[in-house]
Amino acid sequence: MGKTTFAMNLVENAAMLQDKPVLIFSLEMPSEQIMMRSLASLSRVDQTRIRTGQLDDEDWARISGTMGILLEKRNIYIDDSSGLTPTEVRSRARRIAREHGGIGLIMIDYLQLMRVPSLSDNRTLEIAEISRSLKALAKELQVPVWRCRSLTARWSSAPISARSTPTCVSPALSNRMPT
């Protein structure tokens, strides 16, 4: 399972189990593709069949039922702007939180595509600043912030204690590394 698929499963569960908004900041994939994947996943219909239109009556019933639920809940927000900065993410998340009385989950796909213009000459410092900003956002809004990131083979095979950044930041976990 890929990082986006896993993250979308988290988003779908959060959106279906609560009434708070779930925010997706997708720097990698257009919103239409995210919704297609989500619709296929939630309705349990193969996305290739949805994309090609080769659907039977049962598929249509599942898709229709899923669309009804999604339209009723209206709590998944997708921002597919490219090159977002942590400041832009914070501003957009604050606005949604203010309008809806909180947020259930924020998902960022994916971390390495975010930018901090003032630190663009040093990628290590830039990633560290992005991580700090997202941690502060999680604490400020009391919301889990799930950050997808690509791992190198060297990083993913390293002992957990040697890894520098947790993959998931939430108010409860923000000062601890997973063990």
UniProtKB/TrEMBL annotation:
GO biological process: DNA replication
Keyword Iron-sulfur listed: no
Keyword Transmembrane part of the UniProt annotation: no
GO molecular function, one term: ATP binding
Domain called SF4 helicase: residue spans: 1-175
One of the record's GO cellular component terms: cytosol
First-level EC class: hydrolase
E.C. code: 3.6.4.12
Protein keywords: ATP-binding, Helicase, Hydrolase, Nucleotide-binding
Bilayer-crossing regions: none
Origin superkingdom: Bacteria
Protein name (Swiss-Prot/TrEMBL): Replicative DNA helicase
